[in-house]
Design goal:
Elements (H helix, E strand, L loop, with lengths): L1 E6 L20 E5 L5 E4 L5 H4 L9 E5 L5 H4 L14 E6 L7 H8 L17 E4 L4 E4 L2 E7 L7 E7 L2 E6 L21 H4 L4 E4 L2
Parallel strand pairs: 3-4, 4-5, 5-6, 10-11
Antiparallel strand pairs: 1-2, 2-3, 7-8, 8-9, 9-10
């Protein structure tokens, strides 16, 4: 698999000379499989630039959202393939205890925050709620688990063959603890990151 970071900033995009090394766009990571499957982890502002390298013949893209804080979905409406009726976009993300994933995304993709509603996209976007055990997307096996962060938030473990990348962009494993625990006792996130070749983690 190949991994490319398109956005690593939290809270607010800050592109410019002072953030050129690590990037000033908010959370977005591209994962490509050896057979051509494209996974996108989060839809921060980096997803707009990622769209420029999507191959013309790509007919399916899977977008995995860890949670719906603005810095993780702010670029969604500006992701060009979302407006292309020839491209099937599947969005995976957490619901809340009271509102479905579709209902939560519709709050952002609707006036006054965005001029076009989710239901008015050029194509029917397929939505899947996670965590839902292990899922297969092309050549990838993907596992989602709830992690410690305000609002329902998940982390993802993406595996192709023997290779694993773990994505935990917002995660406070010791939040509320009296003392900082040893890594194996971190109940949330540790199973996702065990034996990973790449761990993308922002505490």
């Amino acid at each position: 698999m190949r991994v490319r970071l398109w956005g690593t900033r939290g809270s607010l995009p800050t592109p410019g000379p002072e953030t050129m090394r690590y990037g000033g766009n908010t959370s977005c990571v591209e994962v490509r499989g050896t057979e051509g499957t494209l996974l996108i982890l989060d839809a921060g502002t980096g997803i707009r630039r990622l769209a420029s390298v999507v191959p013309p013949g790509m007919r399916r893209i899977d977008l995995l959202l860890t949670h719906l804080h603005m810095d993780h979905i702010q670029g969604l409406g500006f992701f060009a393939p979302l407006w292309d009726p020839e491209v099937e976009v599947r969005i995976w993300g957490p619901a809340s205890t009271t509102i479905s994933l579709r209902g939560r995304l519709a709050r952002y993709l609707s006036p006054p925050l965005f001029p076009v509603r989710l239901r008015d996209l050029a194509q029917a976007v397929e939505l899947h709620e996670v965590p839902a055990g292990e899922i297969e997307i092309g050549e990838f096996r993907v596992r989602a688990e709830l992690v410690c962060h305000p609002d329902p938030t998940v982390g993802f473990r993406v595996q192709e063959g023997a290779h694993v990348v773990t994505y935990l962009p917002d995660h406070e494993p010791a939040l509320g603890a009296q003392s900082f625990p040893e890594a194996p006792s971190w109940t949330s996130g540790s199973a996702l990151s065990e034996g990973a070749d790449i761990l993308i983690h922002d505490a």
